[in-house]
Amino acid sequence: MDRISIIVPCYNEEQVLLLFYEETEKAVREIETAECEFIFIDDGSRDHTPEILESLVYKDKRCKYLSFSRNFGKEAAMYAGLQHACGEYCVFMDADLQHPPSLLKEMYDVLKNEGYDCCAGFREDREGEGKVRNFLSRNFYKVINRLCDLNMSDGAGDFRMMNRAMADSILEFKEYNRYMKGIFSFIGFDTKWIPFHNVERAAGDSKWNLKSLFKYALDGIYSFSTAPVRLAGSTGILLLILGIILGITAAVRTIFFGYALNGVMLIILLILILNGIQLLFISVLGQYISKDYMETKKRPLYIIKKEKGF
Predict the structure, then answer these.
(1) Residues spanned by the domain of 35
(2) How far apart are CA 293 and CA 214, in angstroms?
(3) pLDDT tens digits for 7-40?
(4) Residue 175 domain-assigned?
(5) Distance between CA 60 and CA 62 in Å, rounded?
(6) Strand pairing partners for 2?
(7) Were both Cys, which of 34, 49, 151, 274 would link to 2 (CB 3.0–4.6 Å)?
(8) CATH (domain of 85)
(9) What's the longest Cα–Cα distance across the chain?
């Protein structure tokens, strides 16, 4: 009999965890030809999430959990869950029930009977989300697809079931700075998409605010594209050419037509603009250098404080 490993990153999810377990356990009962294991990863929660997970381990032998020593982020939690998964099939799910457990049976049937390596949920809409967040999310994927040689679309998230070959390929990526959506696209494999409608969290508050989403977006661009560095170089060349043209023009106007150069304020304004652009692109280069610096340290992606059920 096949085994499906359900990997669930958790961060301060005390209000929704039991409901998630009940709904998902009900859904996996419909999969008659496979058994399931639940792998919960407590990503340094500060509420009662660890206690709830421990109670689930005692209640159901299929439940296991890892508890990080601090918050290492969802990407690290997904990687840790995949490392500890024993199933022939692995699925990533969020604990907030925005990933419908009812799709698990269909996903398994697709992988088992249709020859796909991965079956992923595709969110058709963003109903219930704010207009600003919706606008930024849609346009982020347009930008990142132009910058990176990858195919990532708005609506394609982490909710997906994959076979062991694809799971092992993801585990080959050892980098410290991880962007799972980019990794999914980079490794390829045949994927079937199942559409579903967005639903609001069953309980609790989202851990993703605009600041964290913006940082996550930049991590994705820096992890899979060198376009910002090329843009910095191209802009530098354009500014150099523009400076030469303006210098020649000013010299010609002064020598042949007797025009005096514009005032001090214009010079100060140009200095401020050019220095601002220079500092901006130094920052871009610094981001790549800092990420390479973190990679060379070879620090662990996560540290486990406690584990149960393994």
Answers:
(1) 2-225+299-308
(2) 22
(3) 999 988 888 899 999 999 999 988 888 899 999 9
(4) yes
(5) 5
(6) 34
(7) 34
(8) 3.90.550.10
(9) 91
